[in-house]
Amino acid sequence: MQHHKKTSVPANSEAIVRFYDRMGEDYRNWSPSLHIHFGYFRWGMNPFNLESMLDRMTEEVMLRLKIAEGDQLIIDAGCGVGASGRYMARRIQRARVHGVTISPWQVAFGEKLNGEAGLSDRITLFEADFQAMPFPENHADAAFAIESACYAGGLDKSRLVGELVRVLKPGGRLVVVDGFRKHGRPFSAFFEKIYRRYLALWAVGDLADLQLFKNALKEHGFRDVRAEDITWNVTPTGLHIPWTILKIFIRQWVFQRKKISPVQKNYMKALALTLVVGLWKKHFGYYIVTCVKK
Fold first, then answer.
1. Domains and their CATH numbers in the chain
2. Residue in 134, 145, 142, 168 with CA at minimum distance from that of residue 80
3. pLDDT along the chain (294 residues), means of 10
4. Is there a contact between 212 and 156 (Cβ–Cβ < 8 Å)?
5. What is the DSSP string of 215-244?
């Protein structure tokens, strides 16, 4: 198994590291394969099968990356424990994935899962800030970020964008999947309080403003910037949130006879507030943003 490489992690990321390191395998309550994101629903799919929708989201990313068969290098910026990278490595022969996360637990556990899957030779996880990746310029053929760009600084995520354009080869494609603010107007005092609580529970500073994010992509050297609103495609996934919360209660109280930990309580609150915030369609949407490095 390959050993991960580590670079310095900025002090303001401590809350993020603490959140994901403490959550650990509790994410299996959401996804047995530890996908840490929403899924993508297409007509004809079973909306009760969450895992198939989670896999479908990775498929949608792959379609937009347009990765050909062959020895291509893909960066997963904010990789979690590498679930999407493993899925891609199984689906694309000879593709290699470099995953980046600031969580030491995710790196260690992800490497274990890579080894168990027989993919250690094609997936390497790096403990690093994805806004300062340990890669040279023009390093990768493609890059993606699934529900991780929100952890970058600023409303335009400019520092992350600049780093992604640096490490991609000319003509390299980027796909970003995330929740976005639809505008920069202030919220009501009531909703602002709910929103800030939601962000704090997920250890997120702020969601990206969609227009500012698109502008940043163009200014840093990306072309063909396109944003697809897939809010309704991810909505069936949200219906699994109440069941996930219930599963935590059942497993802890009924089967393990343990109290709900403070971390689990905060996770359940974060899930519940995700539903609440997601209802404000005029303020927020879920998008797939694609672009190409000039």
1. 5-185+205-237+285-293 (3.40.50.150)
2. 145
3. 43 77 85 94 96 97 88 95 95 93 95 96 96 97 97 96 98 97 93 95 95 98 98 95 88 75 88 91 96 98
4. yes
5. HHHHHTTEEEEEEEE-HHHHHHHHTTHHHH
